TrEMBL record:
Matches recorded under InterPro entries: AdipoR/HlyIII-related
Highest taxon, organism lineage: Eukaryota
GO terms for cellular component: membrane
Name used for this protein in its record: Heptahelical transmembrane protein 1-like
Record: residues binding Zn(2+): H86, H231, H235
Source species taxonomy: Eukaryota, Viridiplantae, Streptophyta, Embryophyta, Tracheophyta
Membrane topology category: Multi-pass membrane protein
TM annotation in the entry: 68-90, 102-123, 129-149, 161-182, 194-212, 233-253
UniProt-annotated location(s): Membrane
Pfam families: HlyIII
Keyword Manganese carried by entry: no
């Protein structure tokens, strides 16, 4: 029987947060709500990922999962803010402009948090790089969010500047990517992780290119008002970039569980 890799899922995050809340607020945790959340966990039980190359004889010492919870939290915020934006933006022009800022802030949050699992697990044995890289992307991301939320900097005049910030976040992964390749040169997972990380950079940068150029609607005005315009393509590519980060994280998480530092 193949070995199983336990990964946090959205239901785990909900259970984790709810349990903390219930334990802090009520000492007598209701068994009904406990059963409910266990039911959700079982319903969305995708965490048992089979790794064909796994060896059952090797002991597995699971490493911490909190970077995945950060990523899941950021992704949930992004999807929630985007849903709210696109659901209510038809209300009025003023609300449309405000919600669009929230939409981009959500996307930026997901980009920031998507860096946490791969950087954490790749540099788990050199924690000083966590501070450098995770601190760097968080600072850059927060600056981008502040820029996006600022009414002055949200105007079309500063569109190129905002695009530069998105590009910087995409390119930010190049530095730890090269660093990780050097320090893990002999690691058999190197090429797979590099492929995922390259895909991440390409997805984020291509998404930014659509954001800046407003292709295809600028080529055929009116044709893409409902479907296929640059904002939708941008959304899809950002999710693909985050998924590529997720793939790289899984590869290295499995390695860390098995080999430690
Ligand atoms: Zn949007």
């Amino acid at each position: 029987m193949a070995n199983l890799l336990e990964l946090p899922q959205v239901a785990d995050l909900i259970t984790f947060l709810t349990r903390s809340f219930l334990i802090n607020g009520h000492t007598n945790v209701s068994y009904d709500s406990e059963d409910l959340f266990l039911g959700i966990t079982n319903l969305v039980n995708l965490r048992q990922i089979t790794t064909p190359e796994s060896d059952v004889t090797l002991p597995v010492t699971p490493v911490t999962r909190w970077p995945f919870y950060v990523f899941l939290g950021g992704s949930l915020f992004c999807l929630l803010s985007s849903s709210v934006c696109h659901l209510f933006s038809c209300h009025s022009h003023h609300l449309n402009l405000t919600l669009l800022r929230l939409d981009y802030a959500g996307i930026t949050t997901m980009i920031i948090t998507s860096f946490f699992p791969p950087i954490y697990y790749i540099f788990q044995c050199d924690p000083q790089w966590h501070f450098v890289y995770l601190g760097g992307i968080t600072a850059l991301g927060l600056f981008t969010i502040l820029t996006l939320l600022s009414p002055t900097l949200s105007t079309s005049k500063f569109r190129a500047f905002r695009a530069l910030l998105f590009t910087s976040m995409g390119l930010f992964g190049v530095v730890p990517g090269i660093h990780a390749s050097i320090v893990n040169w002999s690691n058999p997972r190197r090429n797979v992780t590099l492929a995922y990380e390259s895909a991440m950079a390409i997805f984020y940068l291509t998404g930014t290119m659509f954001y800046v150029t407003r292709i295809p609607e600028r080529l055929k005005p009116g044709w893409f008002d409902i479907a296929g315009h640059s904002h939708q393509i941008f959304h899809v590519l950002v999710v693909m970039g985050a998924l590529a980060h997720y793939g790289a994280s899984l590869v290295f998480l499995e390695w860390r569980d098995r080999n430690g530092c």
